[in-house]
Amino acid sequence: MTQSWYVVQTQVHGESKAAAHLLRQEFSVYLPRYQKRRRHARRTELVAVPLFSRYLFVGVDMEAQRWRSIQSTVGVSRIVCNGDQPTAVPEGVIEALKRREDENGFVAFDQRPRFSAGDRVRVTEGAFADCLGLIEGIRDDERVTLLLDLLGRKVRVLIDEMAVAAV
Predict the structure, then answer these.
(1) How far is the C-alpha of 88 from the C-alpha of 59, rounded, in Å?
(2) Lowest mean pLDDT across 58-62, 68-72, 82-86, 125-129
(3) Of the candidates 76, 98, 80, the residue with the CA atom closest to the CA atom of residue 89
(4) Nearest to residue 55, comparing CAs of 77, 72, 25?
């Protein structure tokens, strides 16, 4: 089987639905996902989201499979084409993405600290919104210690890392 990978555009938030229907038609499907930190109602949670919103990859043997059925699959908007023919993903792209997956199957990003001690930042949300401060330290639980200038003196405050932005 000489299978090549192609890009499929899905309907909005329809990546998983399209993948399931393509698998039922016996196509190979690759939907790379990563874990995104989402804040809601003062809680932070990790959710699995597609790496490429509204896109997934489908493996097709153009000689043995009918690729046009992809166009009418539930959840699929279209297969990315150049003219009338689907455009193949260059060799090595899918393999490179799969090499970056962790043991749970999520694409892992290089983790670099967003800030370092001494960086000037602005608080973006909460009681100290729009206050300027200096990063004093970064904790393991995704919180930072800031020195804010309040009422003429330096005050040490512990804030969620996502609630500060570089100045």
Answers:
(1) 9
(2) 125-129
(3) 80
(4) 77
Question: What is the value of pTM for the model shown?
Answer: 0.69
Does residue 33 contact residue 106 with C-beta atoms inside 8 Å? yes
How many CB atoms sit inside 10 A of residue 158's CB?
Answer: 12
Coil/strand/helix, residue 70: helix
Classify the C-alpha dihedral 48-50-53-56 as positive or negative. negative
Contact yes or no for 81/20 (Cβ under 8 A): no
Number of Cβ atoms within 10 Å of the Cβ of 136: 15
DSSP one-letter code for 113: -
The CA distance from 27 to 24, in Å, is 7
Confidence of residue 22 (pLDDT cuts 50, 70, 90): very high
Delineate the domains of the chain, giving CATH numbers in brackets.
4-99 (3.30.70.940), 120-166 (2.30.30.30)
Phi, psi of 154 (to 5 degrees): -80, 130
Q: What is the pLDDT of residues 89-99, one digit of tens each?
A: 999 999 999 99
Residue 160 — pLDDT band, cuts 50, 70, 90?
Answer: confident
The two tokens of residue 10 are 């899905």
